[in-house]
Design brief:
The protein has 132 residues and is an alpha/beta fold. It contains seven helices and five strands; from the N terminus they run E-H-H-E-H-E-H-E-H-E-H-H.
Amino acid sequence: MNIGLVAHNAKKKLMQNFCIAYQRILAKNTLYSTGTTGRLVEEATGLSVHKYLAGHLGGEQQLGAQIENNEMDLLIFLRDPNARNELHEPDINNITRLCDIHNIPIATNLATAELLIKSLDRGDLEWREIYK
């Protein structure tokens, strides 16, 4: 399955730790990420990540295009709800909207990310293969 990984600056270390903890599950899938997050995940885990541009340089739009083409099965977007950067808010809202349109499970915090990754490991997301 194709898994998208995105993390705001304040959540990048959390994303690294999440990927270390679930490295075995993530290794069985194809990973996509915005540039900086992808590089940090690769460095922390040794996992191979297809990296887009940095989020603020267009990486979120590139990821959005993949979602829009129904080429993403799961998205983990660890966002910082305390961030005061209104410039990125349209991209975040667009990605969330696209996930809703295409029935792509999205996690925006650690609790839902763990639920989704464990569901993936159990095979609960196999319906995505049929949905495509």
